[in-house]
Amino acid sequence: MAYQKKRETRRKPIKQQQKKGSFTSKKKYNIKQPSTKEPEEIRLNKYIAQTGICSRREADEYIKAGLIEVNGKTITELGTKIHPKDKVKYEGKTLNPEKPVYVLLNKPKDFITTMDDPHANKRVIDLVKNACKERIYPVGRLDRNTTGVLLFTNDGDLTKKLTHPKHNKKKIYHIWLNKTVKSPDMQKMLDGIKLEDGMSSVDAIQYVDSTDKTQIGIEIHSGKNRIVRRLFEHLGYQVKKLDRVYFAGLTKKNLSRGKWRFLNEKEITMLKMGSYA
């Protein structure tokens, strides 16, 4: 099929289109005047959360404990509103709202999520230290030997939402075990197993490879510490490798081990709205 080029038409000079002085335009130009409206006041706990040091709920605790100053005055009343230009301090340090940042890492093995361990040689925060100038934190924890999806952000409210047990965020793991997993044991994990901290169960479980029944995929919502390893260990299995492939709608697709990327707008909106399984 031959490429068809749009036929060009030569415009007539304005003088030939209309009589001199009769030029009019249907388009109206509205010149935007500078806004004289003062920025709206915001709640103090929201302002503190926007600085990335904590969630709003934690900010309320700081306020009640008398750790927050506004323009040199200690504030202890919850619900206090401030002007965005007010000077806010936490334990003597001035707080400044940061731009929210969201970074996804495919965590490698042997890296710890603890932020304040001075003796650690490998920390996950060191893998994303060049991502942004803002101070970001891992959302939840993956133990040293667990790999996979790990989110970092300075958004305190979102962190609280994603880690609080009552929100039950779905996680999917790929597990390699030291021996074949028996079907009755898989059913026990679905029905629930009593551990030292109460009953725990998985939401779904299956073989990842029908020819290798030492590889298991599970879906779980529990946020208990080391829950996946403890469930299998309780049934007499040893976890050789544990990889988190899904967390709250996020996956490590096209992200090599040890690499990171920023979340896109669609993913950020999804997390904030909670519109994922």
Number of domains: 3
Nearest-angstrom radius of gyration? 28 Å
Largest sheet: 9 strands, mixed
CATH level-4 homologous superfamily of the largest domain: Pseudouridine synthase I, catalytic domain, N-terminal subdomain
Task: Outline the structure in words.
The chain is an alpha+beta fold and 277 residues long. The protein folds into three domains: 42-94, RNA-binding S4 domain (Structural Genomics Hypothetical 15.5 Kd Protein In mrcA-pckA Intergenic Region, Chain A); 98-163 and 252-277, Pseudouridine synthase I, catalytic domain, N-terminal subdomain (Alpha-Beta Plaits), CATH 3.30.70; 170-247, 2-Layer Sandwich (Pseudouridine synthase), CATH 3.30.2350. It is built from eight helices and 17 strands. It has helices at 14-17, 44-50, 56-64, 124-127, 156-163, 183-191, 227-234, 265-273; strands spanning 42-43, 68-70, 73-75, 81-82, 88-90, 93-94, 102-107, 137-138, 146-153, 171-177, 193-195, 198-200, 204-209, 212-220, 239-247, 250-251, 260-262. Strands 7, 8, 9, 10, 13, 14, 15, 16 and 17 form a nine-stranded mixed β-sheet that branches. The longest helix is centred in the first third of the chain and has 9 residues, at 56-64. The protein is elongated, with a radius of gyration of 28 Å. 24% of the residues are buried.
